[in-house]
């Protein structure tokens, strides 16, 4: 497992775990990080990850 710290625009940190080879978007979704809806499933079409 890989440990990540994702930080919201307002500065709130979220420490999450991810499997090697998974995307940052998937790690955020799997750990219910607020603001990451991933409506397009990681296709860079909805703008969430930009």
Count of alpha and pi helical runs: 1
Q: Estimate what percentage of residues fall within beta strands.
A: 15-25%
Termini gap? 25 Å
Query: Which percent range fits the helix content?
Result: 10-25%
Fourth-level CATH superfamily: Beta-grasp domain
Low-confidence stretches: none
Mean pLDDT: 88
The H/E string reads EEH
Largest sheet composition: 2 strands, antiparallel
CATH classification class: Alpha Beta
Task: Tell me the total number of β-strands.
Answer: 2
Question: What is the CATH architecture term?
Answer: Roll
CATH domain fold name: Ubiquitin-like (UB roll)
> How would you classify the helix and strand content by structural class?
alpha+beta
Using only C-alpha atoms, the radius of gyration works out to: 11 Å
Count of domain modules: 1
Q: Strands across the major sheet, in which order? A: 1-2
Any idea what the shape is? flat
Which features characterize this protein?
50 residues; alpha+beta; Ubiquitin-like (UB roll); two-stranded antiparallel ribbon; 1 helix; 14% helix; 24% strand; flat
């Amino acid at each position: 497992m890989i440990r990540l710290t994702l930080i919201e625009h307002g500065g709130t940190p979220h420490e999450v775990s991810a499997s090697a080879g998974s995307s940052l978007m998937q790690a955020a979704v799997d750990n219910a990080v607020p603001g990451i809806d991933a409506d397009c499933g990681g296709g860079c079409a909805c703008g969430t990850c930009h």
